[in-house]
Amino acid sequence: MRRKAGLVLLALAVFFAALSPLLRWYAFPRLAKIPAGEYQTMVLEAHDATLLDYGTMTARTVPKVTIVQTLKGDVEASERIEKTVGRDVVVWDGLSYVLGPDGRMVSKVPERYIFDAHTQEPVHAPGEAVDGDPVRREGLEFKWPFLTEKRDYEYFDAQARITAPIHYKGTQDFRGVEVYYFEQTVPWTKVPMPKTMPVAGITPETVAATGTTRWYTTVRRFWVEPLTGAPVYGEEIHKEELRGGTLLGDRDRVTAFAGHVKMREDYIEHTVDLVKANRTVVLLMTSYLPRGFLFLGAVLLALALWLEARGRRPGEPAPEEPAEPEPVTA
Which residue ranges make up each domain of the chain? Predict the structure, then answer.
């Protein structure tokens, strides 16, 4: 009976010991993915910012500029693209909506971002665009990969439509969460005018006809929780200028927008709580369960060996072998 119990325990020990690396290195990369139908909203603010008054074409200081960013998953588009590329895909329709201090629209820039649900790498498919212009993204945008590493990544800038390195600057504590701090600087770059302008009659075409161009620079900062790859906080030191052309009269340039853009406090709290909850799920699959299964396998193996040793304890009389039957003669 002991031998049978020992064999069962040995089989269970092997099972849990094998399940530990399988869960971490096989199951987790396939199960961890971004849901196709996710919906997110983020509100950012720039206080005491500089904003261009398109009516007078002069820059003025305003108490606050608000940027509302939304990301909405398109499940039907994801399923359609998945059939052509043969992998799990997420399609996000994003919108960056900028509001002045009076609540009126300053600009709005839509974009469609298509990426691998597991790795967050871009997937190139029809529809990939920023403000209606087709783009071919390289690098990350919005989210880092699961199990983010302490290294530089390539990050796509939607304003300039370029990819540039975003540098790992160290590990920090952000409201009780260990995060990796990343920073990217985009130098002054000529960028397209938004397709939607705040004043009726002013379009990118009418501005281009005057010879005036739009330039942009930013310092982009993200604090990223490494297990989930989710930014818990982000901010930008953002500047835009209009340069040259007859639209500015005798001026060489004028500030279109300048401000230190930060996440609003209530959205910081919500994001931190959400990331903490998701972090626990990732820890279950990458640490708690694999280590627990490995420990359980070791305990079961020790118990199986103990039962086997006890079954062969010295000093106990060996079982007598049955005597051979005596030959029978006629």
Answer: 2-22+285-311, 32-263
